């Protein structure tokens, strides 16, 4: 068995198996007394599966990103004619999300894989961009005296952006778990 005192906090052993067997090697390892270029040696295998219990770490790492997105989404609650906050909040949210990504990336090992961290941040960047796009479109329609259309886009667009963002995040997290 293993010494439970040697485990690292936040990690759980979900499986522990010990086995023995014989391994075949296609070489005599330079022994001239062997007639065939092969040898057999016993082996001892330990298979230990570790799982990280890291929901607290997940929320600690991604709280800034989620807050940044929701700050940018607040712009949908502001009158589309108020240009400064309508565009300022999403831009501030985007800068905060980018900063959050750099901080998280500096604490994780480098990989060429597109990870959960990358998926969540890219989704946040895109949906903050969509927030700016909807705000710009609302402003264009307001300037063309299409007030009703602009206000409807603002309300429906805000709900769609936040809803799809939450759904995608939930989907990415569920797929990462299973």
Based on the model shown, name its key terms.
178 residues, alpha+beta, 4 helices, 2 strands, 58% helix
Distance between the termini: 27 Å
Which structural category do the helix and sheet elements fall into? alpha+beta
Largest sheet: 2 strands, antiparallel
Write the H/E string, N to C.
Answer: EEHHHH
Strand order of the largest sheet: 1-2
What does this structure look like?
The structure is a single chain. The chain has 178 residues and is α+β, with helices and mostly antiparallel strands. Helices cover 58% and strands 16% of the residues. It contains four helices and two strands; from the N terminus they run E-E-H-H-H-H. The chain has helices at residues 55-73, 83-107, 116-143, 147-177, and strands spanning 11-25, 39-52. The protein has a two-stranded antiparallel sheet. Helix 1 runs antiparallel to helix 2 (83-107), helix 1 runs parallel beside helix 3 (116-143) and helix 2 (83-107) runs antiparallel to helix 3 (116-143). It is elongated, with a radius of gyration of 27 Å. The two termini are 27 Å apart.
Question: What's the gist of this structure?
Answer:
The chain has 178 residues and is an alpha+beta fold. It has helices spanning 55-73, 83-107, 116-143, 147-177, and strands at residues 11-25, 39-52.
């Amino acid at each position: 068995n293993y010494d439970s005192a040697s485990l690292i906090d936040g990690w759980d052993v979900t499986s522990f198996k010990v086995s023995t067997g014989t391994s075949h090697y296609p070489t005599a390892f330079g022994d001239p007394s062997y007639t065939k270029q092969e040898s057999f040696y016993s082996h001892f295998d330990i298979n230990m599966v570790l799982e990280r219990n890291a929901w607290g770490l997940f929320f600690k790492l991604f709280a800034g990103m989620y807050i940044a997105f929701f700050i940018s989404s607040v712009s949908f609650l502001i009158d589309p004619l108020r240009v400064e906050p309508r565009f300022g909040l999403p831009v501030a949210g985007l800068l905060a999300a980018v900063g959050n990504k750099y901080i998280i990336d500096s604490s994780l090992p480098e990989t060429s894989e597109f990870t959960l961290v990358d998926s969540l941040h890219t989704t946040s960047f895109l949906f903050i961009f969509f927030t700016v796009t909807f705000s710009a479109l609302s402003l264009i329609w307001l300037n063309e005296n299409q007030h009703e259309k602009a206000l409807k886009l603002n309300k429906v667009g805000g709900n769609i952006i936040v809803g799809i963002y939450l759904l995608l995040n939930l989907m990415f997290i569920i797929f990462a778990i299973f």
